[in-house]
Give the backbone structure.
Amino acid sequence: MTSLAFIPGYPPSPRRLLARFLPPLAEGVAAPYVAQYSRPGDVLLDPFGQSPRVVVEALYLGRRVVVANFNPISHLALSLAVRPPSTLELNSALTYLADLKVQEARLETYLRDLYRTTCPDCGARVSADAFEWETSDEPEAHPVLVEKTYVCPQCGGPKQYPADEADRALAQGFVQPRLDYHFLLERVAPPDDPNYVYAREALAVYPARTLAAIAAILRKLDALHLPSEMRRLLAGLLVAAFDATCALGPDRPKALALPRRYTEYNLWLALEKAVDLLAGSVDAALPDRSRSLVELLSQAGESALYAHNGPAREVVAQIPTGTCALIVTAIPRPAPAYWTLSAVWSAWLWGRESAADLRSVLRRRRYDWAWHAEALERTLAVVRPTLAATGKMAGLISESEPGLVASLLTGADRAGYALEGAALCGDTAEAQCIWEPREAKLVGTDAARWEASVKETALASAQAVLRGRAESSRWASLHFGAWDGLARARLLAAAPDNALSVVGRLLDPLFRAPAHFRRWGAEASDDPATGVWYLPEDIAPPGVPLADRVEAEVLRLLSSGAPIEEVELLRAIYAAFPEVYTPGRGLALACLNSYAYRTEGDAWQLRPEDASAARAQELQSIQAELRALATRQGYTVAGANPQEWREEGRTIYLFAVITSAVVSGYFFNPQSLGARRSFLVMPGGRASLVEFKLRRDPRLRAAMLAGGWQVLKFRHVRRMASDAGLTRTTLEPALGADPLEEMKQLGLGVGD
């Protein structure tokens, strides 16, 4: 079995076409898999075509790529990513559109005038950037225009003012169903079409004025015979504008539902902004590598792309068995809002037949994970014959919620893929998996024995995750470990129909049993994602928590003193902690911030004061200052480190001086028994890392409180040592005068 190290990438820019709908796959993630599992000139297959990044990175590495996607909008996004237009080309296309005539006016002027308003400050007539609408909680209430945003050509801006009566009167003129509305609706589905009512629901996420503006543009384009490249550019600009002016809000929408307060954007301004969006969609343009499938398969050694505008089953029938060295793909998740809008946008741009494969999504209202597992299984089974016997499949998940993980592992196992490795980065919700094509060797097993195996394997796998991490962990990690274990044992392939639901019902009682797991911050009946998980204390083995091991690895990597690029550091950290033990990006960066500083560019370098020799000298200095302070206060000192301040044979204070934030050994193995107060003395930069660890692991925090430990910072020791007026009376409050913020929020200081 492969021990898969998670590959970090560069977070994708939020300014990219369809950013709120397409998977947010990090840049640079696909390339290492392409490089490792294929050679230049090899044929690769992306059967889902969800992320243009996969294809772009494979083409840069000289592979021949076949990609399938039945969504014409995603197909357009891919075209614009692999062959991005220049700013000049896009501006030329937009100028052509602006100069078209509507009612004797330029189209740009006509569209801007739809959003006309008046500046209250100077009375100038302006075209608003946006209007804000609000709906009350009253049944059947209609949205009310409440605010406008604009830039005044005379007195500047941007400015925000309440909408006035003239603004509301203008907007009201678009509310009643107009010919524009029916033109756009029937372009998607005619009145006698079963999808007609669902098309109406889809159009409801657009303000009425926006629909009028879209209709004006489409009517003009319908009358023109344009070159294919001009149509591609205009389609890209329009899709970007369709997306920007849809009133669903900025987050990743899962359903078509207007928020209570929404923004109506100026469509023409959205078209202008789309120029920068499309021209900057990739770092550098690739030459046009588009080929027919026959050309791609026959021209060995030449980087090429065949993008099939249809489902994968149509294209794989034309690919000889064993042709592909690698299947690499961003795993799709159910996206009904995007699919529905894609059906609408496709029909608007190219006619309703262009979205034939998407029409069913207009009326589908339920996309559960069991349905998704079966959909993934069907596609993966269809494409498996194209994969070489020694080939691999790489699945890249950029939104790794438990339901999607279970769907993918179930679908792949049942489609004839053996899981070799799987890695999860929990805090960024990313996962990566590698399979090889191999049917499961199923033996005749009765249902009762299969169920027992599922329970035993999942429980052992989930508990192994916690033993390996040695710290309380999120539900995502346990769930990932359990399903990873089931997939590796090929138990999902042996499951009955509706495997996802059946396995889920078997596992739920196991995770809720107090004998198997302990939860912090949640009750057993709560949603599994609530709180964090660990093992009951009677079966929890000793071990160094993952956070402490990651800190030690970060310090080792930085110890040379040379600057190291952040992505290289993360790759090295993740290589040291592969699979489900991958630390969160937040933990890795917290460790880096504690020991290093950012140099110019995106590199980290160890702080001079954190070099081992400097810290060793400082540790001795702090110990000496503590001894001197004890003597001044009349205590005797026993031990070097920990240092005990004693009186009449009793330990009053205990001080353990450390230069790291590796505190678990003290908290879980108390050395302070008998001491009235116990302190961990550390650099101030380390204290912030301790706080981070306490916030992420309530078990560690509970152990700290139970052991009566306090954190004392080096700077505060020096402050007390230099205070000639410090007495025993003032010593006690002085020791608690600079607590951790985490303890301060609880109101906990010395004496609590």
